[in-house]
Amino acid sequence: MLVTENTIRVGIIGLGYVGLPLALRFAEVGVPVLGFDIDEEKVRAIDQGRSYIKHIGDAAVERGRRQGLSATADFSRANEVDALIICVPTPLDQYREPDLRFVIGTIDALLPYIRRGQLISLESTTYPGTTEEELRPRIESRGFKVGEDVFLVFSPEREDPGNPKFTTQTIPKVVGGCTPACLKEGIALYGKVIDTVVPVSSTQAAEMTKLLENIHRAVNIGLVNEMKIIADRMGVDIYEVIRAAATKPFGFVPYYPGPGLGGHCIPVDPFYLTWKARAYGLNTRFIELAGQINSDMPHWVMQKVSEALNERERSVKGSRVLVLGIAYKKNVDDMRESPAVVLMEQLQAKGAVVSYADPWVPIFPKMREHHFDLMSIELTPEAVASYDLVLIATNHDAFDYSMIQTHAKLIVDTRGVYLDSMPNIVRA
Hints:
By secondary structure, this protein is α/β, with parallel strands linked by helices. 37% of the residues lie in helices and 12% in strands. The longest helix has 32 residues, at 203-234.
């Protein structure tokens, strides 16, 4: 059992928003880290001390490199490390069912190089049973006994990119093992870099924990989005209502409406559980209803855009629309599942001339399902005044909202940036 020893080397597969911060944290405490990624550009960036994630920065990667972080695209080097941590995407397919091709592809690529004594940890969000049903049989097909020869755990990632209040070190880490020996190794591994490790009884419990966390958020965001629509119809300010309700010192947690759900977790993870529940003859009606409400929010925003333009005797077709913020949440460059992109597509489909401004995303990135040949514009008073409508989709702190309000002809605010009523501002 090598992980419980003092000197180990860690391998992290997938150097994105989850894998890179974790790799830097291991390096910070003196644990040598070998990062694996199929993206050769990420490998080159790390070996050159450059960051490709804006909120992390070059200095952090260069410091990690000096502390023992290196990277490779060669999976045959997996036998050089004592622990392998898998941090790869788990998207949905076109039928909104789990797509495990990255997880399965990764474990299959590692199998020829796994050796006795290694710990393997899956961090990718997935349905309960994935570790036992998909990873364990593949590992044991090599002749290893899980819990004796190789140790297998599930430990869900809990990164919150751009949140300065919490770091990889300070966010408690849930760990479940296939066996008690596996759990012991998992606790030893993460205990080196995380302040609080929370053991649970099984990998299934750990997998379900992550889903509950994100479903809790999805359902409550769905509730407040529905409340926003009702309040709007009644002429009530939903943000005033939320602020008032939040003064209650018990029994209420404030959630805020928006133009739809974004990020890799909340729009995706609930459907991993709904899919698995069907295997047990169960329907997750509450979860699916929240998902439907949240996925419909861009359509509701578009209705508000159309109404706002119509009141000024303009149609969406031919209007010049500036979308403010296209990352999925403020102060990050993460575009995954961003509702702003859906809004851009819907605006374009209705004939609008679309531009965007986002200091975190200077060039519209390559995405699997979306494409715009656009660059972020410079936000000057003259530029803002040249648009028929400014749509606030992501409320980055870097925007000068006072200047925007002064010079914009019309603003549709989906994030509650403007608390006071003004003639050129419409809430959505």
